[in-house]
Design goal:
The chain is α/β, with parallel strands linked by helices. It contains seven helices and seven strands, in the order αβαβββαββαααβα. The strands form two sheets. A five-stranded parallel β-sheet has the order 2-5-1-6-7, with helices on both faces. This is Shikimate kinase.
Amino acid sequence: MSGTDRSAHAAQDEAPGTPGGPRVAGVSVLVTGMSGTGKSTVLRLLARRGHRVVDTDDDGWCTWVTHPGGEREEVWREDRVRALLDGHTDGLLFVGGCRSNQGRLRDAFAAVVLLSAPEDVMLARVAERSGNPFGKSEEDRARIRADLRDVQPLLRRAATLEVVTTCGEEEVADRVEAAGLARLVRAAGPGGHP
């Protein structure tokens, strides 16, 4: 285990609101980024570490809307996501997703972590992944390129931290977890108590 791994796990053992730590008010962290940046992988690793995670790509968190002009888009069901965030009262909650309306709920997140990767890495990841067909067609890949150009700068401006995911998966999870733990300690106040 590297020094980074030891310090991240030691901080977790001592931090309020984490397994083994004192109970504190809940802190929610948005894990966002373009397709192929590793959101689902990071959420899976954080869940293994005992944190509550919600991947909004899963059923029930999004709905399709039709904009004037006929363009269809999948967006967060804001009522459901807001209820999730408002109902979170203890420890860390990591919410993963990237939808055009997520900024409307920005105030409910203590931190926004942007995961990013070079275009070629993202395109290779979506081509190789299983369980999610998005990114396999040339149309999807063109959308990823356009989103990288047009959407990622907006995400970057709203982020409290950006993690480039070309390092190892565990290191990415360590950095995302540390961002949440830092907000959790702040929420706990002096002496680790709310």
